[in-house]
Write a structure and sequence with these properties.
Blueprint (H helix, E strand, L loop, with lengths): L5 H12 L4 H13 L1 H23 L7 H9 L10 H13 L1 H18 L2
Helix pairs in contact: 1-3, 4-6, 5-6
């Protein structure tokens, strides 16, 4: 069995979902240019993630509007939307079943953090 380099084990999942700092992301991208084993593993992770998202998303029949997702993500009534306790609980349950909406929430929170740090 071939040895998998530690880059694969430590950073490829985060690289795949875009959850690395810019510097670390560049470093992993450079590594991938020269490491066929890591590229194969990244391809496998990508296919598995896409299949998982497809299956999970098929369980969800309706999605919240973008405005509701953004308001939930930033944790306040940025768009003048009110969410009561039941609405928040319904949103949490939706996010458990819907990786697409969870990714949107994560991305909105990341942008908010980046803008807040300027």
């Amino acid at each position: 069995m071939k040895k998998i380099c530690t880059t694969s084990l430590g950073y490829l999942p985060s690289f795949l979902i875009g959850d690395l700092s810019p510097g670390r992301r560049r470093s992993v991208a450079r590594h991938l240019e020269g490491c066929e084993e890591c590229r194969k593993l990244l391809d496998l992770l990508t296919v598995n993630r896409q299949e998982f998202m497809r299956r999970m998303s098929s369980l969800v029949k309706e999605h919240p509007s973008t405005e509701v997702l953004v308001s939930f993500a930033v944790g306040h009534n940025a768009l003048g939307l009110q969410m009561n306790a039941k609405d928040r609980m319904d949103m949490e349950m939706h996010l458990v079943l819907c990786p697409l909406c969870m990714i949107l929430i994560r991305d909105v929170r990341r942008v908010e953090r980046e803008l807040g740090s300027r």
